[in-house]
Fold each of these.
Amino acid sequence: MLSNGVARKLPVLVGTASHESALHFVILGNDEGKNLTLFDERRAEAIVSNLTMEHYEFHNHRLITEGCYFEYVYGLKRPNESDVVLSESLMDMFSQFLYHAPAVRLAESYDMLGAPVYLYSFDHISDSLFSEEDHWRGAFHGTDLVFLFDLDVDFATHYSYRNWQIDRRVTEIFSELLTNFARVGNPTPADSDLTKWKRFNRTLFNYLSITDHPQMKTGFHWRGHAFWNRYARKLDAVDVGNLRFIDALSKQLESYQLATWVLLSTTIFFAIILIGLACYCTRKDSDDSDS
């Protein structure tokens, strides 16, 4: 109904946490025998293949997989660099594929239909959720709800007075934004003292970065959008059948070229022999005449 203009174009709120898929690494990484912070290339390749090779959204699974290898595995880790780089890259891959890229597509779809869209990324990294021994810190899946509803988290045992103050500030800001949105359809109406939250623009991909000091930014999780919503879609649209046909023609042409060169070489060889014989016979006839 929204597409044909019959339904009222209600404002839409869309958002993700900055490190959505990291929750699995945070929880499982603490289990004995499950070190999720270290990956070698072989294990990283297997994880990428598991995500892409059978996914229902794709047709050219092999092309998509090879693209992911380059984007998230081969193109990042330099020689002698820590394997932690690969684990963080794989976290980004899952976050971008499962959350960030779909969020952009959803925002674009509603914006194209004329509905006001407000896009956010929950970027507040709370010290209360991590200890000094933790190898990784970030805003994982559900962190925005933890702060919106002031929920207790089982492994959040590191509270200090300063952390509590900062986290409380984030909760107050986030709850005020969503209350305003639910009340008037605008997170920051004219009477709000918070940073002006501008509606989503398909050119800027602008969004509100939610921390204890929220600010507007552009290019919402751009790497994930550029790869999954643009490059991967183009890879999936490639006509693999035509590529195979072209490759077969190319190999056939190479065979013809090789045969041509062989024939030409043979012709030149026999021509040289014939010319040599002709010269020999002419010289012999000349010698016979002289004698």
Note: Residues 2 and 135 are 46 Å apart (CA to CA).
Amino acid sequence: TETITTPTTTPAVEEQSDKATLGERNALKSAQSYLKYSGFSEKGLEDQLDYEGYTSLEINYAINNVEVDWNEEAYESAESYLKYSSFSKQELHDQLEYEGFTESQIQYALEQVGY
């Protein structure tokens, strides 16, 4: 009797996560957690992960693998600022710029909040 076996393949996503170091996986988890509760720019998230002590490689892994819409993060951040304080369009622009959002992300956020 001949036995036929079908080779199994692992999806690319699983292979990638299997190759990630513990530090990379933890940096990604931290990034996901921060983004869940607050609007972060890519730069702001990088700075936060750096502050926590993650290495550059771990931070890059997290940034490159986290599912995020940076425009929506800018909008979320703008909404948060407006919830607690009055900002002119220019003040809000400057604050978002300070937070590390790009000009196109800032413009998206300003349009979404009604400026």
Note: The helical segments are 12-19, 22-37, 42-51, 56-65, 70-84, 89-98, 103-113.
